[in-house]
Amino acid sequence: MRSKIAGIGYYVPEKVVTNDDLSKVMDTTDEWIQERTGIQQRRYGKKHQETTTTMAAAAARIACERAGIQPEDIDFIVFATLSPDYYFPGCGVLLQRELGITQREAGALDIRNQCSGFVYALSIADQFVRTGTYKNVLVVGSEMHSMGLDFSTRGRNVTVIFGDGAGAAIVQPSDDPNRGILATKLHSDGTYAEKLAFINPGAHGGYHFNKMGEATDFGFPPEDTYGEIFITPRMIETGQYYPNMEGQFVFKLAVQKFPEVIHEALKEAGLQASDINMLIPHQANLRISQFVQKILGLRDDQVWNNIQRYGNTTAASVPIALCEAWEAGKIKEGDLVCLAAFGSGFTWGSALIRW
Ligand code: UT7
């Protein structure tokens, strides 16, 4: 049995933040951001009104409607995010409550795989559906980055890149054995975990677990004691509670791993890059997408890019792009769609779908 995406939806908040808006609060320029990333603007959620969960619910309702089901029909939730409403519990249960479907007591799973979160989540849904365990799995990627970014110049290399949004899909059994999810490939390599990370607050207790011998100051003086090391005044003072990224390091690995994992899925499905009708790459950087497009020999109209309008929405970027491409009529029945992502962890993955 195969699984298929039966319905898909996305939600982005109304508030548009341009590069010029950011240049008013930090030392950056529209020119730098566009040249290095392709980003022109991003969306930010409404403070005190919208959260990662509420945006996910908006996307999920659309996905349900398009799949011809009610939220109550959902058998299982897989929620990918790096910007959860709470440290715990995860957004899966919050989404269940937000959708008003707690009476079913359906399981909810949270995925912490950052940019590749949606591809991982989709793969999990695929396994559950193919084994006949569940019929309607809700897969969501949602991010409210704007609440946790450093808007001073110190954070500019990260902050200008990220935006808010959510995407969702309903995964169901496919009645046609030739259509649906053909292959998913998932990988990780924790060697460079700290190269793109949000380390504090955390339970690491100041222990330096980076095995590369690089000194990392997590903001914990040795005299700190149990109960005081999760989040410390020094951490706040030095701003060590924001995401950090070594951009060039990440970039170099991304352009290597994207084509690798796409070819791996193609090989399993007995297909070639030239068979792809639409590539939906994680929207990390327009230059990365263009590089991958070139390696695969795809035309401009075979790759969906929307980073210009939304920035990098991490776990939400693949489903938002997929949904936009579908809504624009660029994905038709029978088309071969390839999803691919790479990011923090490092984790990466791909999915091949016969639509
Ligand atoms: O989605 C998760 C996966 N993430 C990725 O795949 C991201 C991969 N990496 C990238 O996309 C790029 O590395 C970035 C867009 C993050 C950065 O572009 P870059 O061309 O690699 O720039 P850089 O980090 O090497 O920085 C170049 C210069 C530095 O100044 P100096 O040291 O040359 O004087 C930075 O301080 O640009 C400076 N800079 C900025 N200047 C203006 C960094 N951020 C900014 C900024 N505005 N926002």
SSE topology sketch:
Elements: E1 3-11, E2 15-18, H1 19-23, H2 30-37, E3 41-44, H3 52-67, E4 76-80, H4 91-98, E5 107-111, H5 117-130, E6 137-143, H6 156-159, E7 165-173, E8 180-188, E9 196-197, H7 233-237, E10 244-245, H8 247-269, E11 278-281, H9 286-296, H10 307-310, H11 317-327, E12 336-343, E13 347-354
The structure holds oxa(dethia)-CoA.
Architecture overview:
This protein has helices at 19-23, 30-37, 52-67, 91-98, 117-130, 156-159, 233-237, 247-269, 286-296, 307-310, 317-327, and strands at 3-11, 15-18, 41-44, 76-80, 107-111, 137-143, 165-173, 180-188, 196-197, 244-245, 278-281, 336-343, 347-354. It is 31% helix and 21% strand. Among the domains are: 2-174, 3-Layer(aba) Sandwich (Peroxisomal Thiolase, Chain A, domain 1), CATH 3.40.47; 199-241, no CATH class. Helix 8 runs parallel beside helix 9 (286-296). It is of the alpha/beta class and 355 residues long. Mean pLDDT is 93; it is low at 208-213. Residues 28, 32-33, 36-37, 115, 156-157, 160, 247-248, 250-251, 254, 284-285, 288, 312, 343 line the site of oxa(dethia)-CoA (UT7). Oxa(dethia)-CoA binds next to helix 2, helix 6 and helix 8.
Features:
single chain, Peroxisomal Thiolase, Chain A, domain 1, 5-stranded mixed sheet, 4-stranded mixed sheet, binds oxa(dethia)-CoA
Summarize the structure.
With 355 residues, the protein is of the alpha/beta class.
